[in-house]
């Protein structure tokens, strides 16, 4: 009876040790799979999340870009929606060329774009509810653009582009105007200045280059709050602005939102001078979704254009992505280190309790290698079970992280599981090294005689 009780106690102690090793490996695998799964899929999700806060590439006429570089203005040389300049543009791109953006190699990475014609006009209210004598303003920034324009491509595909998706952070009281209509949006600052509310109608007056004075009645469908100087502007359909300014098929800017890969040394080298790249570097750069390579391809399809990345947005995307990935990789490394320490201690304790058993095996002829392989095989089987369970749990945790943080699931790549299993194998081997050394140091005669 005493003999069986001793065997049961020994088995119970060893079962607990083995269970703890399995749980330790399971937890490490869970953290590693979850973190690395997010790391490999976080790039596109972060870029998509950050791209909701504005364009990361702007396209403008080449002459304007030369002026910007010459005087270091860092922006559009012409008027803009915030009204920082009251001069109208003098060089233009063709609005009919804008859909060509969706024909470049990285067309599927272009999530949205919107052409703009930035002009200035005088505004006069034409509403019975507003005193027109006091409702006047001169030199108001007017932006002719698309709101939700459906484009039918030569490939047979259709896409929707416009400000509706480009200005997702705007607070809009009302509804978006229809394209190719006499409708518009007005900023909160300008609306307050004019005393205009949604549903009112205003009249725009514009003196064109040939000296004629055109006018256009605009029905206000909504009032927007952008949170910046853009609130002093009015947005109307591009076709309406072109008629008002007598500038058919003309735009002076295209804002582009694209999913991009953060810049590295190759991308920075290419942005300075693509012609300085070797053939291999060129192919790598051109076939990677860097902001500079996408901008270069846009220039190829839009005649007379210069496409530039918005440095602040591009830098933010790269910086946030690198820091997020660094944190997750660090958590993975720490979990593996903790697993190595725990497995090493548990194996050492197990060998200490099983010293007599191992010594007996050596006494009856088992070599040090055979005993070591026995212990490694036992640990490997236990660790494999823990790793498989941990991989399944880690996949679930990754999905939870994806839905909570990004609002969508994480795509688990096979590479993640292969990498985690390789890392866990190395971790268990390193943790077992010190324990194997203690097995080699066992002397059967001394152990069996209790010395």
Word description of this protein:
The chain is of the alpha+beta class and 451 residues long. The protein has helices spanning 2-50, 62-71, 163-166, 188-194, 238-245, 265-272, 279-286, 291-301, 311-353, 355-363, 368-406, 414-440, 444-448, and strands at 57-61, 93-94, 110-125, 136-145, 149-152, 158-161, 171-174, 183-187, 201-207, 213-225, 234-237, 250-251, 253-258, 305-309. The radius of gyration is 34 Å and the shape is elongated. The model is unreliable at 1-11 and 74-79 (pLDDT under 50).
Topology:
Layout: H1 2-50, E1 57-61, H2 62-71, E2 93-94, E3 110-125, E4 136-145, E5 149-152, E6 158-161, H3 163-166, E7 171-174, E8 183-187, H4 188-194, E9 201-207, E10 213-225, E11 234-237, H5 238-245, E12 250-251, E13 253-258, H6 265-272, H7 279-286, H8 291-301, E14 305-309, H9 311-353, H10 355-363, H11 368-406, H12 414-440, H13 444-448
Parallel strand pairs: 4-11, 8-10
Antiparallel strand pairs: 1-13, 1-14, 2-12, 3-4, 3-9, 3-13, 5-6, 7-10, 8-11, 9-10
């Amino acid at each position: 009876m005493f003999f069986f009780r001793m065997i049961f106690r020994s088995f119970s102690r060893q079962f607990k040790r083995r269970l703890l090793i399995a749980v330790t490996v399971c937890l490490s695998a869970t953290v590693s799979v979850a973190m690395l799964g997010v790391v490999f899929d976080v790039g596109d999700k972060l870029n998509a999340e950050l791209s909701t806060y504005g364009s990361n590439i702007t396209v403008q006429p080449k002459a304007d870009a030369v002026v910007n570089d010459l005087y270091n203005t860092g922006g559009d040389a012409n008027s803009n929606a915030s009204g920082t300049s009251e001069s109208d543009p003098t060089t233009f791109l063709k609005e009919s060329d804008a859909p060509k953006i969706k024909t470049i190699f990285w067309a599927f990475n272009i999530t949205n774009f919107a052409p703009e014609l930035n002009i200035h006009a005088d505004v006069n209210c034409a509403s019975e509810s507003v005193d027109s004598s006091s409702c006047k303003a001169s030199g108001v920034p007017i932006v002719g653009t698309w709101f939700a324009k459906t484009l039918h491509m030569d490939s047979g595909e259709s896409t929707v582009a416009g400000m509706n998706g480009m200005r997702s952070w705007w607070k809009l009281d009302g509804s978006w105007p229809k394209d190719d209509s006499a409708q518009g949006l007005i900023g909160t600052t300008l609306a307050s200045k004019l005393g205009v509310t949604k549903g009112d109608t205003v009249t725009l007056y514009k003196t064109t280059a040939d000296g004629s004075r055109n006018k256009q009645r605009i029905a206000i469908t909504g009032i927007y709050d952008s949170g910046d100087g853009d609130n002093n502007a009015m947005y109307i359909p591009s076709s309406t602005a072109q008629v008002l300014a007598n500038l058919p098929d003309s735009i002076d800017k295209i804002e582009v939102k694209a999913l991009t890969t953060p810049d590295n040394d190759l991308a920075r080298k290419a942005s300075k001078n693509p012609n300085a790249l070797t053939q291999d570097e060129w192919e790598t750069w051109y076939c990677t979704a860097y902001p500079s390579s996408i901008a270069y391809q846009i220039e190829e399809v839009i005649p007379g254009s210069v496409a530039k990345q918005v440095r602040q947005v591009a830098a933010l995307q790269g910086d946030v992505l690198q820091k997020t990935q660094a944190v997750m990789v660090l958590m993975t490394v720490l979990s593996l280190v903790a697993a190595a320490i725990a497995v090493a201690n548990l194996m050492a304790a197990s060998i200490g309790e099983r010293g007599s058993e191992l010594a007996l095996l050596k006494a009856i002829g088992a070599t040090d290698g055979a005993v070591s392989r026995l212990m490694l095989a036992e640990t490997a089987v236990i660790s494999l079970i823990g790793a498989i369970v941990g991989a399944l749990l880690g996949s679930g945790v990754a999905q939870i992280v994806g839905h909570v943080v990004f609002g969508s699931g994480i795509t688990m790549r096979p590479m993640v599981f292969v990498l985690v299993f390789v890392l866990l194998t190395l971790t268990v081997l390193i943790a077992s090294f010190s324990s194997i050394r203690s097995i080699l140091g066992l002397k059967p005669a001394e152990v069996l005689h209790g010395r």
